[in-house]
Design goal:
Elements (H helix, E strand, L loop, with lengths): L2 H16 L3 H9 L14 H5 L4 H26 L1 H16 L9 H15 L9
Helix pairs in contact: 1-4, 1-5, 2-4, 4-5
Amino acid sequence: MTSDAFLVVAFGFGYLLGSIPFGLVLTKLAGTQDLRSIGSGSIGATNVLRTGSKGLAVATLLGDALKGTVAVVIMGYHAGPDAAMLAALGAFLGHLFSSLAQIQRRQGCRDLYRRADRAVSGRPPWRSA
């Protein structure tokens, strides 16, 4: 496989890992109610905490945080830093636009657009004001 083709594979691998909706998966395995029907309707760790299970909320938070890390480490080890960066981008976009959960994470999308607007207008994107 050529290096350019492997970069596409790295992005796809990151996207697939990023698309795993740990909040939905873990609450379904635990037998709790549908996560999208309670609280804010989001599938993140905060809404999992509203189900009353701190353990599931921590597991969701760790799963969501580590899925991008795993993609970057695996692709960086096997294909180098360019593949690792594309895997990170894929994991980020997979987390925001999950094809597996058929949802869009509203808060993440809003933050992405806000920071991109700040960067384009010449203001530091990491500042909130």
